[in-house]
Amino acid sequence: MRVFISADIEGVCGISCWEEARPREPDYAPFRRQMQLETAAACEAALAAGATHVVVKDAHGPARNLRGAELPAPTQLISGWSGHPFCMVQNLDESFDAALFIGYHGRAGVGGNPLAHTLSSRIVREIRLNGEPASEYRIHAWAAALVGVPVVFVSGDQTLCDEVARHSPGARRFVTKWGEGPSQQSVHPQVAIDGIRDGARAALAGDRAAARLELPQRFTLDVVYKEHARAYARSFYPGCVQLDPHTIRLETDDYFEVLRALRFVVA
Asked: For labelling alongside 50, which of 5, 87, 111, 206 has CA 20 to 30 A away?
């Protein structure tokens, strides 16, 4: 069995403000460590479930948060960004049997996590896929579906896990935290580590096909920017049109084209 793991930080246990997510800030180190431990737990689960090949994509910020030596052998780690449209699931392909998303978070425009955003907290107000507001989970779960790989387990905040339950009820979930306004209440860090290990192992040992997603036949991508000038400039991406001062739209029957557009219009 081949398992792919994508790891973010804004959904790990305890994190509650941007200073804790940014590598140059003094508050970052404990939450980088929690991201490391939660990711390692997912790797341990994969190996315990019989995986012979485990690949982790560091998918937060500069993508240089995780330390390969602190992951169980023979896990392979992808650091940095290649620029490939698969982004947070870079190098995922048809050879993998399942994917796990660790430390994921609520989408832009929702509560429950002070760090909620979609791809860019700086420039994006909202991203919609086929008329529905989309999270980073949704964008990359559909990327996984494009190559026939089910996302069988997701950990992160309550808001995100509620979305996963609606979008992919066959996927297992572990809630690390929940919040109101700028505050967060979290499980104990060790409870999160153990819960991710147990949940991921059960997901991989269970009916993985139940988490397989079917892609729509056609896609409409809307990107709503915080600043109208960005919408105007990015409306010139091939195939895009400007709907209003803050919004551009792309329509296509190829989901890879959606991913490719996101690579250029959310930058």
From this structure: 87
Q: What is the pLDDT of residue 198?
A: 98
Cα distance between residue 138 and residue 134, in whole Å: 6
58: β partners: 7
Contacts of 83 (CB under 8 A, 6+ apart): 263
Instruction: Please name the residues in contact with 2: beta carbons below 8 A apart, sequence gap of 6 or more.
Output: 51, 52, 53, 54, 55, 95, 96, 97
Task: Let me know how long the chain is.
Answer: 267
**Same domain for 231 and 203:** no
Domain presence at residue 126:
no
In a domain, 131, yes or no: no
Structural domain range at position 242: 219-265
User: Which residue ranges of the chain lie beneath pLDDT 70?
Assistant: none
Q: Is residue 236 part of a domain?
A: yes
Q: How many whole angstroms separate alpha carbon 43 and alpha carbon 30?
A: 20
Asked whether residue 127 is assigned to any structural domain, the reply reads no
Q: For the whole model, what pTM was predicted?
A: 0.97
Tokens of 195: 């819960």
Is 151 strand, coil or helix?
A: strand
How many structural domains does the chain have? 2
